[in-house]
Amino acid sequence: MLMSAVSVRPEDIRKLADEKGYVIVAHNYQIPELQEIADYLGDSLQLARMVTKIDAKKILFLGVDFMAEVMKVLNPEKKIIVPVRHSTCPMANSLSVEDVIKFKEKYNAPFVVYVNSRTEVKAYADIVCTSANAVDIVKAIDSDTVLFGPDKNLASYVAEKTGKNIIPIPGETGYCYVHNYVKEDQLKQLINFHPDAEIMAHPEVPKGIRDLAHFVGSTSQMEKYPATTNAKKLIVVTEVGMIAKLQKLYPDKIFIPVPSMVCYNMKKNNLKNTYVALLEEKIEVHVDEEIAKKARKAIERMLEITESKDAKVMKSA
Ligand code: SF4
């Protein structure tokens, strides 16, 4: 029977992954049905750290392409497959190697690259960061002027928190469409509707939105914040996929999404193409070894700085 005529259940994927010896690693923004079957679920830093520690030789990764490439860069000996080849990140693609060379020549300053970037751009960076550790990484750099890209909003958040001269590269065109286009009016409407709710926002949102939030942090930091507040309701200003995970972690609280915040690139993975990926094992992630070597150094520098921090990997139930 043709796959298009068959409906795939999450347990079918789980069974096939177990039979074929695959570990399923998924980003927090995946659809809830895929989050359910993941062995490991987390944000970029959690997953990057986790893959270096597991024995499995084969990984099915559910996220976007730059994240899958980080897995491969850190685990060149592992087979990493994905459901679709073109699940990519427009923000990562907004910064080119040519941009980096141009800005480095102009400012002669260290370059910190957000993990949401192309692998060849990471190869030109002094160090990688994630939204969870960007402030700590920039503080740890021995320079008052730092080039930071590609996200201009995260760059402005880091400038605020560190007091350093942060030069966003490529500049105005570097942003995540999911987080950048949240409007203050839209959020204020939600606040009016839920006056008793607190607001958690991702640092990829613009400053006006951050200023309305009770808490600003990465998705891994958002996982911890509800435990620290008495608020029963929280408005979650990041990709809607995060709601399922938070609801599972805190069943007695209510999490309210911003409905427009959907990453269509993350949502390209579904039950059917994930099952087919396991069945065929054809869409494998490859990274040029020379580029991988340089990118690995920049990622490992980040891991060295964050290794001492208490960032535990969440093993999904
Ligand atoms: S949510 Fe934004 S930054 Fe994340 S993958 Fe989607 S487009 Fe890229």
Layout of secondary structure:
Elements: H1 10-20, E1 22-27, H2 32-37, E2 40-42, H3 44-51, E3 58-62, H4 65-74, E4 79-81, H5 90-93, H6 97-107, E5 111-114, H7 119-122, E6 127-129, H8 134-140, E7 145-149, H9 152-162, E8 165-168, H10 177-180, H11 184-193, E9 198-201, H12 207-210, E10 215-216, H13 219-224, E11 233-237, H14 242-249, E12 254-257, H15 271-280, H16 289-306
Parallel strand pairs: 1-2, 1-3, 3-4, 5-6, 5-7, 7-8, 9-10, 9-11, 11-12
Helix pairs in contact: 1-15, 3-4, 4-16, 8-9
The structure holds iron/sulfur cluster.
In short:
By secondary structure, this protein is an alpha/beta fold. It is built from 16 helices and twelve strands. The chain has three domains: 3-87 and 266-281, NadA-like (Rossmann fold, 3-Layer(aba) Sandwich); 91-175, Rossmann fold (3-Layer(aba) Sandwich); 178-257, NadA-like (Rossmann fold).
